[in-house]
Each structure stands twice: as structure tokens, then as C-alpha cells.
Amino acid sequence: MLSISTSWNSSLHTDAAEMIRQLCALGTNTIELGFSLTESIVRAISEARQQGLLRVSSIHNFCPVPNGFDRFSFTPDYFSLSSPNEEERAQAVSLTKRSLETAKNMNASALVIHAGRVAMAQRTKELAEMLDQGLKNSPAYTAIMRDMIDERKRKKDLFLSAVKRSIEELLKYAQEIKIPLCLENRYYYREIPLLDEIGDLLDTFGDTEYLGYWHDVGHAQVSENLGFSRHIDFLARYGTRMVGVHLHDVIGGHDHKVPGKGNFNFSILKPYLKKNTIKVVEVHQPASIEEMKTGIDFLNGILSINENIS
Known about the structure:
The structure is a single chain. The protein is globular, with a radius of gyration of 19 Å. The chain has helices at about 15-25, 40-50, 85-105, 125-130, 140-175, 195-205, 215-225, 230-240, 290-305, and strands at about 5, 30-35, 55-60, 110-115, 180-185, 210-215, 240-245, 250, 255, 280. α3 (about 85-105) crosses α5 (about 140-175). About 45% of the residues lie in helices and about 15% in strands. The chain contains nine helices and ten strands. The protein is α/β, with parallel strands linked by helices.
């Protein structure tokens, strides 16, 4: 079964009951809890789950939003697991442990985490805009890419070291409560992990079932469209460690679109999806219920989710 991320409609509702009703109206009772949910909303979802109204496939860090923060502006990157500032890194670890507890309480199968970022200029959106304008591979585009690659290479070691310390702490807790941590490939080039860094992080902690890879289709395809890495390489190299996928469509440098409304070839995923792979539709607004239903039907058809995945 497909799961639906609350990222689709959580911003539309302050009432949890209406948010849940709208999610269930899509024809699936399985959801992923996104990162824009308050404690009260999470409690309401827990009650609905206990009543048998829905299942929770996975949790996206941080969930719930910490007390004192506005849920509409708080993001998974507010506190960074790769921060060299020990106070911030410790806060990120503490909140991630809380999200692991949410996953345990919801009987979820995984926690999706952002592993932080390298402190550098954010220019990915600038490249995406140039891609839209047909300027890919122009001298200006190439110069920006070269500068981004060089700056990140110079600065990354400090931040990768910090995120390894964070994962070491978190992995002990994940093993204790039996919830896998999943490293998600990211949209912005400054974020961790890039393609090679996924392997580095997985190898650092060995072949454990409590640290896995979460494949975001849109992020991988944007990376390819911008010229940084090939989509298929994420799947080929880390498919055996892939716990779940975020499914959404892409146009150029823009993702989180309704499946079937963009240009991504979802059929390339089929060899890597197993019966127990968590499959989450992670579409953002604007997208109507009718568009979402069409997108879900599209995915069920092209991926044969209800038929052939073994």
C-alpha cells in the first residue's frame, strides 16, 4: 500500500480531525507524519490510530514540532545534526530521539532524518532558475556549479565529522527501541549526504538494520537535472539498504509535484521496490484531492504496487 505524507495537507488545517478525514478520503488509511505537526495534532493522530482509523508507516524528523516554535516556519533543518556548535548538535540529537519515540509510539517502521548541511552559500535554487531559463551549461551556470563544488569540498570535513558523532549517539537509541534511522538524500547541494557520502555514512556504522537509506525520488532527479549526479546511481548503489521512498514528480529543478504531472520516469524504481519498502507519496501544495487520487492511481498503475512487487 502507498502511504501519504501529511506534508500534503497539514498546512491547510489546524483541526486534526479534518486533516485526517481528508487524508483518508484518498483511499488509503496509511500515512507518514511530517515535520509540521504539533503535539496536539500528533496526539489526535495517535487516538485515530488506536481506533483503527489509520496506520502510520513512518515519521519525518522532527515530529512533533518542539514547544515554543511556530509549526508553519519550523523545519527539519532548524537544528542541524551536522552542526560544529555542540549545543545545537546536542539539541538536534535530543529532538531526533524524541521523534524516534514518536515512531515507537505510533508503531511506525522508520524515522526519516535530514543529516544536516555544510555551512556555505545556498545556490541550488539559483541553478534551478537558470535551468528553467535554458541556461544549463552556459559559462555562468558552469561557473556557479564549479564554485559550489569547490566550496563544499573545502568545508565539508568538519560537518561530516559532526554528523557521524550524532549518528553514533542516535544509533544506540534506535537499536534500543528498534526503530531504523533512515538517511534521506537531499535537494540542496550544501546538504548532507551527497551521493558518495551516503556510502561513507552507511559504511562507518557497518551492516546494521537500524541505519538505512531513504530515497527521495524528486531530490535525486533534481540533482540529475542540475548536473550533479545521476538518479540511477542512488538506486544502484544503495538499493539494498533502502528502507523507503518519497514519491513525487519533477519538472526541471522543481519537485514535490503530483505523480504524473511532471517528467520523471517512475518505472526506473520498479527493480528496487520490494514488498516491505515503505512507499510514501510526498506531494506539496497546491494539489487537490482529485489530483492526489489521480496521482495515486498513476503510481499504482505504473509501479504495479498492488500486484507485482515481491
